[in-house]
Amino acid sequence: MYLEYYGLKEAPFNITPNPRFLFFSPKHREAFNHLLYGIRDRKGFIQITGEVGAGKTTLCRAVLEQLGNNFSTALILNPVLDADQLVKAVAMEFGLDVKGMDRLETVSAINLFLLREVEEGRDAVLIIDEAQDLSPALLEQIRLLSNLETDARKLLQIVLLGQPELRDRLNQHNLRQLRQRITVRYHLQALTFHEVAQYVHHRLAVSGAKGSPVFTKPAIWRVYCYAKGIPRLVNAVCDKCLLAGFVQQQDRIKYRLVGKAIAELEGKER
């Protein structure tokens, strides 16, 4: 609705995890490098945690784009399954036809696939998003998948992306075998006020902004205080700000307008 008014090519503050809009704050760059290092150096298990909306999924998609053709990837977005369903989901993500197979047969098919990948010079990566929702039984099943190996190397690199609760889950005594296998860990912190200002400018620039709209410094401060540095919340309130600015025909997004946008976002605007 407001794109033509501001001269934008696309909406700058969508909450979908589009890697083109990824803002590499120092902490996001570090998380990105941890992911690439762990996968490329075949570290086995990698754990990335962060608050809801911190940018973990966007980072993951950016890493997938970076890996190239030497990697086969499986991405599980909804891990709330039983053990049989999870193993089948992994196999299907790798493109395997496992219809009618039981769990043992499915694991065998995955193992054969992984061995073929090694022969063809490719690495296999399993990425599980929202991993904090995995039950101890499912985490144990994932550990068993990590046992697929040759004498020289692990056949499957496994990335667990999740909210801070994932760390608490993995600290349970009965999951110590899995915890000991995680060699690369990173916790993605929220953005600072300075980084939020850069983040907003970055997303506007990617969307084709040519000097308009402009968020004033007090407006950015109010966005930061509301969102507490969480990118998804920054997106939500900034999108409302642009809509409110369009309605009021304002190119400059000011402190008071951010307050109005927050009230609408919270359902408090009458």
Structure summarized in a few sentences:
This protein has helices at 3-6, 26-40, 56-67, 83-93, 103-119, 136-145, 165-170, 176-181, 193-206, 217-227, 231-247, 255-265; strands spanning 45-50, 71-76, 123-128, 156-162, 182-188, 214-215, 252-253. With 270 residues, it is α/β, with parallel strands linked by helices. The model has no long low-confidence stretch (mean pLDDT 91).
Description:
It is a single chain. This protein is an alpha/beta fold and 270 residues long. The chain contains twelve helices and seven strands. The strands form two sheets. Strands 2-3-4-1-5 form a five-stranded parallel beta sheet, with helices on both faces. The chain has a two-stranded parallel ribbon with strand order 6-7. Helix 6 (136-145) links the parallel strand 3 (123-128) and strand 4 (156-162). Helix 2 (26-40) packs across helix 3, helix 4 (83-93) runs parallel beside helix 5 (103-119) and helix 10 crosses helix 11. The chain starts with a helix and ends in a 5-residue tail after the last helix.
